[in-house]
Amino acid sequence: MSKKILVVAGDGIGPEIVAEAMKVLQALQADGSIDVSIEDALIGGAAYDAAGDPLPAETLEAAKASDAVLLGAVGGPKWEPLHISKRPEKGLLGLRAGLGLFANLRPAILYPQLADASTLKPEVVAGLDIMIVRELTGGIYFGQPRGIETLPSGERKGVNTLVYTESEVDRICRVAFDIAMKRGKKVCSVDKANVLECTEMWREVAVKAVADYPEIELSHMYVDNAAMQLVRAPKQFDVMVTTNMFGDILSDCAAMLTGSIGMLPSASLNADGQGMYEPIHGSAPDIAGRGVANPLATILSVAMMLRYSLDAPAAAERIEKAVSQVLDQGLRTADIMSEGMRQVGTAEMGDAVVAA
Ligand code: NAI
Ligand code: MG
Fold first, then answer.
1. How confident is the model at residue 69 (pLDDT cuts 50, 70, 90)?
2. Options 3.40.718.10, 3.30.1660.10, 3.50.50.60, 3.40.50.300; which CATH number does 129-257 get?
3. 97 vs 161, residue with greater confidence
4. pLDDT-derived band of residue 116, with 50, 70 and 90 as boundaries?
5. How far is 221 from 244, CA to CA, in rounded Å?
6. Where in the chain is CATH 3.40.718.10?
7. Would you call 141 a catalytic residue per the annotation?
8. Nearest ligand 1 atom, CA 281
């Protein structure tokens, strides 16, 4: 049956990189590898300019009716003066909440061809391939009570609360275990169980859930040690699963081990396997409109979409192999350029992936 994809390109380089991802989708469609119908809709600053709302109701409805959403990026200096409720980021947050996307998958992959892009020694990071599974709709970013209150003394008190229910922990752990089953079958659950009771419970729930996955090797690590280990010896990890805040921090750290923001895709999934797929970078207003942005993170986001929401793992693998092949050919956008390689623009890179 034909699957539905909603494309929301957004702002800045969003439309440029999404155009290249569309070429890849269309090529797979043309040769019969996938059967999809593709619609597009407005989001972010572009939606605010056209409709006065960064997440028009039609966009949210269309997203709910689709199997997967492909997002470019939102935001830019033009919309910074707006009130927070009208800012482009609101469009992104509204989609996450509206679709109930509780599982954020952030791979950190360093293609061997780009090992010198990292600030770490090539032998520490070359061939790095880890997946961080971050809980996205709970934890301290959403827990109640929260806020800033003024005490009778006049001093202010700031409060945020770390909250997880057992079912929230169970479902995110199972997402991590399912993913690990298709990879190295190793999961490291990251917590602060020595200090925070909430994450002591997290650890217990993870142990209980893994009983249903006899092949998974589950380990536990305190978050401070996990940060250290990510920088010291990142290749020890296969899949990491953790809370919203710890995952926010660790996934950015892991991404930067690879040194190339233009190369990293991401996925956010809900309980029905519906997902939103996007590069981890933003709208890059500093290079927008010049045709120089790296489209590979968005193209690799399409591969994740095919794997996790559209049940087309073979097509996903073809995209990933094609990306590796264009790197082998020495093609580089400016952000990953190094000596002896051939610098290409956004469209040329997209065309090369299609050809490969
Ligand atoms: P950014 O990720 O847009 O850019 C950071 C740096 O990386 C810039 O120098 C940019 O030119 C470069 N870069 C990013 N993507 C690239 C690509 N594909 N190819 C080559 N170079 C690339 O982050 P920044 O500058 O902090 O934010 C810019 C705007 O994007 C802001 O309005 C911010 O709110 C928004 N943003 C949106 C996100 C999203 O839509 N998911 C995520 C992060 C930021
Ligand atoms: Mg972050």
1. very high
2. 3.40.718.10
3. 161
4. confident
5. 16
6. 1-105+261-356, 129-257
7. yes
8. 2
